[in-house]
Amino acid sequence: MTGAAERLDAQLTVAAPPVGRVKLSLNGVARSFGAVRALDRVDLSIAEGEFVTLIGPSGCGKSTLFNILAGLLEPDPGGTLLLDGAPAPSGSLLGRIAFMPQRDLLLPWRTVLDNAILAAEIQGQKKREARELARSMAAEFGLKGFENHYPQQLSGGMRQRVALMRTFLFDREVMLLDEPFGALDALTRALMQRWLLDLWSRYRRTILFITHDIDEAIFLGDRVTVMSARPGRITLDRTIPLPRPRQPSLLTAPEFMALKRELLEAVEEESLKAFAANGP
Amino acid sequence: MSWRTLPRLAAPLLLIALLWEGAVLGFGISPFYLPPLRQVLGAIAALWPAYQSAFLVTLAEATAGFAMGALVGIAGGIAFAHLPRLRRMVLPLFVVSQTVPVIAFGAIVVLWFGNTLAAKAAIAFYLTFFPVTVNTLAGIEAVDPRQVALLRSFGAGSRELLWKLRLPAALPRIFTALRLSAPLALAGAIVGEWFGATQGVGAMLLAALFNEQVVAIWAAILAAAAVGSALFALVALAERALVFWREEL
Ligand SMILES: Nc1ncnc2c1ncn2[C@@H]1O[C@H](COP(=O)(O)OP(=O)(O)O)[C@@H](O)[C@H]1O
Ligand SMILES: [Mg+2]
Domain limits of chain B? Predict the structure, then answer.
């Protein structure tokens, strides 16, 4: 282990490997917007250190679910949401879960480093210390030499890495990533996926990851969950027994293909329903 | 300012000077309508200390009122953005205040404050604070709600949201308002000087008008333009330092 990595591990939380303790548990969580029922009684349980991917047709309520988990949106009364086994009313979740929204939302007046430390800074960490830590992590996030650039000088992939670094530096045990690689080209995306798995194996956060790409969902996840067309609910929860660390060659392996076929069917069915309900 | 800026600023000035001189010579314009530029510049050079002090007096009046107006405008915009009830009660009063013409307002202010710097600054203030208030408010309200949500998910309260997001995001609009109000502040100071002041470019302009000294009128106009440029340059420099990210977009 390098000196920098040791220092990081001392400062950033590295959770214990999964022991099966439930980190996050949802029971009948629902949400309507006026007459539109966006989420329909979602049941989902995520163990500590687990990487769960969530896939579903667009408009089915995935981002709505994330907004609820981040404490930004109140669920309809009736459901329960437990964090570490304790009930977590909506307002109490703010500042407790590291949320990365669909867009990077970097602030154009802040450098790469200062964008990365935004959450840490809001949490009251000293700016100088936070910068120090971010600087030592820059290489790991592929941002070495760009620490003092502004977001508008970066490529899409780099901006996404800054947003991810901001999420990691927020240092919460649960991370919600909403289609973080959705806007990237296929090649960059593949690189970022392996890089994320690498980071995750080192820092062991509990991750819930939204994607619309089945390959990505299988390649990354310990479990793949499929959400139905609106009103969204979890219709399939599939454990992915593929060994880790995962290599790109896995994408063409027969066991991968078998899983993909199974999931594709489930997703296709939901997409057709969404298509029939809303048109293209 | 870099070494490139100077020629960029000087070129249009030189062009205006050439057009002025060329028009006077070429069309044989009577000096009553437009005296040659040489003559105007000569008049300024001959009375340099007087013009210099007039420039400084008016610049001080306009800058004082402008700075106050900017501060009150920004603070007002922030307060209105956070307190909808205050906004409903006070913003209409701000709007009504702007329906009083600056000349009428100036007369009252000079009655109240006498012939002081404060009187002129108050008029400059009167013309500045309103556009700054409105634009600060609009800038704050135009902040991307997704960005607000993100910062709230990090645990940000309204204070952090203001300093780390709302105010920086509103800066481009605030500076647009400041650039528009800088010449207004100058006009306010000059109007203030017309009510019996003995110092400043506005007072010089009025004296020259009464005495029908055409060259002196034009000299006072040039001095006023110099004050306006100085004020504008101050705003532009501050903008370049604070809103640096905009040019890169
Ligand atoms: N703030 C809101 N107000 C009204 N309707 C909303 C709001 N947010 C989301 N919706 C609706 O809820 C549904 C689910 O949206 P969303 O969660 O963004 O879907 P996804 O992320 O899966 O594409 C959509 O039909 C959307 O129009
Ligand atoms: Mg979405």
Answer: 37-242
